[in-house]
Write a structure and sequence with these properties.
There is one protein chain. The model has no long low-confidence stretch (mean pLDDT 95). By secondary structure, the chain is an alpha/beta fold. Helix 2 runs parallel beside helix 3 and helix 8 crosses helix 9. Helices cover 50% and strands 10% of the residues. The protein has a single domain, classed as TIM Barrel. The strands form two sheets. Strands 1, 2, 3, 6 and 7 form a five-stranded parallel β-sheet that branches. Strands 4-5 form a two-stranded parallel ribbon. The radius of gyration is 19 Å and the shape is globular. It contains twelve helices and seven strands. It binds zinc ion. The site of zinc ion (ZN) has 5 residues, from strand 1.
């Protein structure tokens, strides 16, 4: 009997962790230009492991993102690639405004402007548009704005897609992309090599922090962006998660974790993990996730000048 219990206890942790993968800024994040052929090539590579392994994934779309460079059908084709690979799609607004600096009415218009192509593509597959993700994770500078938007989203049949595993993947991707384009192979190599160890530190931090804040390791929601770096490392990143004992779940299943019903009274200009929002609401002492390596931050800043 004791032996059996021991076996059970040993078997349990292997599949105990769960994560929903969410990918923002479709058709392409800020790591490079909106060249349609390149975006299609990156998309094909990025989604291939999800298709092959039937891993649930949802992409959040800025329908206006590449409108100046794309031909009329390019966006539709890229988004169809995601759906054909088994992904879901959500609305991330048309033009990626921040709620910190945009009037609520304008922000809502921008959400509506992002809808037609998504509703159309999803309806053709007998599916519905369900999820909304705030650009920059800015959910409202004041509680009044936040609540007003939440009510509006509910009226429009949206479920907010929170994030627990927040990180600076976009910073690595921008440094990597710029280094590649300018022929700086050394910086590109360093950025790529530093990326997954950094992501591992993010997992490690939020796994522990979720126990401190929510009392258990929550069903995590990972945010990453549709960029070339992620397309290149995705098989290895999935390996990293499997090694940590994760299985891949839908956003819907993640949100069934009671943690997502924890009180969240945070209002302010910060855009960060929901685990931090819950901890702030509880009045806990703040604890931030690990920073990216200094050279990434420096290279990122240099490129912005
Ligand atoms: Zn975004």
């Amino acid at each position: 009997m004791t032996f059996r219990i021991l076996l059970f206890a040993l078997a349990l942790p292997l599949s105990a962790r769960e994560v929903a993968i969410t990918i923002d800024d479709l058709p392409r994040g800020g790591d490079g230009p909106c060249d349609a052929a390149e975006v299609k090539r990156i998309t094909a590579r990025l989604i291939e492991p999800f298709r092959r392994e039937k891993i649930p994934v949802i992409g959040f779309v800025n329908a206006g993102r590449c409108r100046e460079k794309f031909q009329p059908d390019d966006l539709r084709e890229v988004l169809a690639m995601w759906l054909e690979a088994g992904a879901d799609l959500g609305n991330h607004t048309f033009s990626h405004p921040s709620l910190n600096t945009t009037l609520l009415a304008e922000y809502q218009d921008d959400i509506l402007r992002g809808e037609p192509i998504l509703k159309d593509l999803l309806a053709a597959r007998e599916r519905k548009l369900r999820y909304f993700r705030h650009p920059f994770l800015h959910a409202g500078p004041a509680l009044e704005t936040r609540r007003a938007l939440e009510q509006w989203l509910q009226m429009h049949d949206y479920t907010v897609a929170p994030v627990t595993l927040d990180n600076s993947d976009w910073m690595f991707a921008e440094v990597y992309g710029r280094a590649k384009r300018s022929g700086n192979a050394e910086i590109a190599r360093r950025a790529r090599e530093a990326y997954l160890p950094y992501m591992e530190s993010i997992f490690d931090f939020f796994e522990k922090r979720s126990v401190e804040v929510a009392g258990h390791e929550v069903r995590q929601i990972l945010l990453i962006h549709a960029n070339e770096l992620n397309s290149e490392v995705m098989p290895k990143m999935l390996e990293l998660m499997k090694k940590r004992g994760y299985r891949f779940i839908s956003l819907e299943r993640a949100l069934e974790d009671p943690a997502y019903k924890l009180p969240d009274e945070y209002a302010g200009t910060g855009g960060f993990s929901w685990i931090h929002r819950w901890s702030k609401t509880k009045g806990m002492r703040p604890k931030g996730e690990p920073d990216e390596p200094a050279f990434i931050a420096e290279e990122y800043q240099r490129g912005r000048k």
